């Protein structure tokens, strides 16, 4: 089987190359679509997509197999990673004592439940679809408005796009933490895909599953480099990367759909660029729904937002009752 260690060895070099100067790039290029007059109400990505008048149809994949709903939809391998799980009081007290005694770096430990579970679940659910089940509003944007095929491989491409958006913000964190968050997200992705291949796609051969995992790994590396190129250059290059990966290079592509996706991406990046390292590392982020538009903050609004965030975390740091597991060394002013 293709282990997470193999994925780690193949992707770690990519993480190192792309980390340098990423913070400056994130804040510099997060909002080229939003340099218009601030008084003008910007349309949401979904509204842009609905302006299409082309009768383009999804590509007809030969492996257009339906995705069967599993008996359980739990992503986490451990109940302790779920935000809804509450430890018994004695276990919680023992854990807090252990963290305090051995001075564990919670910013590193937190990467597992935050990036490996919470952020992966966010990415996975954006386009999650099962045969006979109603689509979520976000999934409708991708499968109905953008006319993408409802296949397992297409779900992976949509999930990968959202993971790359998070990669951009993770690279802007201090290197040792950002790389750890990225790796936890990648590890959980392939662990979950392997489980879904057996339980949902009825793959019964370990050799076949291993080949699928290798193919998905290749797709991930190629897509990340393509999206990075668009992120570091301009929207035209980013749109080309979206066309090659998300739309599989279809010939009858609607440029309105590409514009909608690029606007969707830039909206997420703008929100992430206004989020401090600590807020992001704590899991205080959700993707902006495609039917909502992002409004650029005025300098006054941005200053007020930073002031409130600083007050919140300054109070937490000074409070002697703050649990060791809730403490962080990451910046809340950036």
From TrEMBL:
Pfam families: Ubiq_cyt_C_chap. GO terms for cellular component: mitochondrion. Residues 315-334 are annotated as: Disordered. GO terms for biological process: mitochondrial respiratory chain complex III assembly. Residues 321-334 have a biased composition (Polar residues). Residues 144-287 form the Ubiquinol-cytochrome c chaperone domain. Belongs to the CBP3 family. This is Ubiquinol-cytochrome c chaperone domain-containing protein. It comes from Torulaspora globosa.
